[in-house]
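Hello,

I think I submitted the flavin-adenine dinucleotide job twice by accident. Can you confirm which output corresponds to this input? Input:
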Amino acid sequence: MQTSSPPSHPTTLLRAANPRTLLALSAACAYHTLPAAPPPGQLLSSQCFQCHGTNGQPVSGFEGIGGENANEMHKELLEMSLRKPEGIMDLQIRAYTPAQLRLIANYLSTLPKTGETNDD
Amino acid sequence: MNTNRRDFLTLTGLTSLSLALPRSLRANTTPPHVLVIGGGFGGATVAKYLKLWGGNIDVTLIDRDASHYACILSNLVVTGAIPISRIQLGYGNLKTKRGVNIVQGEALSVDPASKEVTVKIGNDFFAYAFDKLVLSPGIDFINPAGNYNSDLTPHAWKAGPQTLLLKNQLAAMAKKQTFVMTIPKSPYRCPPGPYERACSVADYLKRKKSGAKIIVLDANASIQAEPINFGNAFTKTYKDVLTYIPNAAVSEVDSSTKTIVTSQGTFKGAVLNVIPNQRAGQIVANAGLVNDPTGKWALVNPLNYASTLYPDIHILGDSQGTGQPKSGHMANSQAKVCADAIIRGFSGEAPDPSPVTSSACFSPITSKTASWLTASFQYDPVTKAMKRVEPSFAEAPRPTSDGMEQMFHWADNIFADSFS
Ligand SMILES: Cc1cc2nc3c(=O)[nH]c(=O)nc-3n(C[C@H](O)[C@H](O)[C@H](O)COP(=O)(O)OP(=O)(O)OC[C@H]3O[C@@H](n4cnc5c(N)ncnc54)[C@H](O)[C@@H]3O)c2cc1C
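Support: Only one job matched these inputs. Its output is below.
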């Protein structure tokens, strides 16, 4: 490894290296809440997003899966898990338990429909 | 180095001190800070999802390069089917759309006790403090013995300049010349990848360099992924141009003469594409986190990808040693499990007890067709490991043009899901 002298001004170093420390020093009285616990089904559903896009909003090709009726989605997922596999979808869906498929269908139904809003 | 490091730590003493306060005393003043090293498929995804799901979390993503070149689709860059710009993924969206702090620098070492990472930026060294650290540096190589130099005999197993080097060497081949490539010992990055490369190159030689041949030297006893599709390709589609030699362990490489010595004989090619054996990214070793029985990968808890040695350091993607396939799809999948668990941890909750992860790889077999491979994993509470769900595991029935079309849509979506 190439040797090099450390930065000569620790303050600069801190500013560049760790904005958080400066925050801690300057805003010692600020209040803020910790992140909230994630809703059920969110993590499982995110495993659909590699193909179907973040929050079920694809940028190309595959179907949008946000904002569909939960019961219909659940029925469709169950069907795909039982029919003779036609492609990657039918195979990946076989990894989930019926209870997990229910959680996924419920969570996806709470997301905006494709094209309605973005994922921000 | 030692002296520098000591002086340097003194300089940053203030940083260490303020972070030495227990979280409970700091929690109401500043958001927790997650530091991510490596902006590839695992690192970019975990940074994005921490911001998307986590609300008030400070996330800093450090990569040595200004943008990431995806290995996904990179064999098509080698054959000139797509330009390299198609696989160049920038960090602009993570920064502006997601609010991730983006830093270009090389992470050199990790101090688990003071919870700091030493990062070289230009010629300067900086200490980055963290509450949680995520390492997703991909792979590094175990270089073969001999006069080996990847600038002469490219691996093209990390995309970017290496991909272009191999592309140019392939394009410069004369008719009737030989392309020699090696397949590393498992486990390595992207199980079908080397066989896919063999097919892409064979197809190119057939179309553009009449009489040219490819020799595939596999360190393994047999084809490691999609045995049916690659087996058919090797014995039927490319039988006139491709020779597949299993059990070919590499003993020596001379990059200047493009000669390779293996347990199956000595070979010489106009192009020699050595893909060396692989291990966790160097920073994982520097951090002292390589602890699997083979001495190459980092053991983690698959419920949150925390190192089995340090609960606040997580390892994702190719570097971790859960035995799940080393793929970009899988790194993205693990990153979501990790992000979710870190967020739960910050609010005092245990990780989700039953995560599912998936892998998918698309492989061009000819210039017009592609096959695929997929597998999914469930957490097994008895073995405390991710277990492949057998009914989810299969290769495509055959390569098709539909498969090729799906491959590009999938790439668009996984690129966006990870990097924007
Ligand atoms: C030819 C080929 C084809 C492939 N095809 C597929 C496919 O079809 N599907 C699929 O899912 N996968 C595929 N892969 C595999 C996929 O590319 C990898 O598994 C995936 O990139 C792993 O993600 P990662 O986050 O572990 O590492 P990477 O994506 O490699 O990211 C690592 C990042 O860390 C940075 N880094 C490393 N060390 C440091 C450091 N010390 N400091 C700062 N930055 C650092 C690197 O610059 C890099 O940007 C393919 C691979 C190859 C080679």
